Amino acid sequence: MKKIISMLMVLSLLTLTVGCTQYHAQGAGAGGVIGGIAGALLDKKNPWRGGVVGAVLGGIAGATLTDISTRASQEAAQQNRPVEYRTTDGRGVYQAYPLEYNEQTKCHKVQERVWEDGKLVKDQIKEICEGEKTERKY
Q1: Are the beta carbons of 31 and 23 closer than 8 angstroms?
Q2: Which residues contact residue 93 at a Cβ distance below 8 angstroms, ignoring those fewer than 6 apart?
């Protein structure tokens, strides 16, 4: 089992290099780790196969969800209106609400909420900036 978990960690680190942005990499990495562990635990006959398949599928799902989150929050900030995405089956809902704009930093604050099966699973405030930061401070 230790070998499986260490292999999954290596796979998740490799998944981090596939993402387009830092956020995609984080989503892919988290999805890869969770999917890999779940796949290894579920495939009792061949945990390696389950771990690899789970890590790949989890990485793809994590990066996709991160992409939806990034696009919707940018859209809400640019258009200054709420944005909502729903899954085709209606079980998943993503909402982004613009909150405020800081003229000095040229950044918008957007509240993100994610619902699964009617339960709130994520509620955070994200900062979306118009320009590129060239140093750590504003």
Answers
A1: no
A2: 84, 85, 86, 87, 114, 115
CA angle 96, 23, 55 (to 5 degrees): 110
Low-confidence ranges of the chain (pLDDT < 50): 16, 18-19
Query: How far apart, in whole angstroms, are the C-alpha atoms of residue 14 and residue 126?
Result: 26
How much is the pLDDT for 57?
78
- Return the domain boundaries, the chain: 2-129
pLDDT at position 19: 44
Report pTM.
Answer: 0.55
What is the b/e burial string over 34-71, where b = at least 16 CB atoms within 10 angstroms of the residue's CB? Answer: bbbbbbbeebeeebeebbbbbbbbbbbbbbebbbbbbe
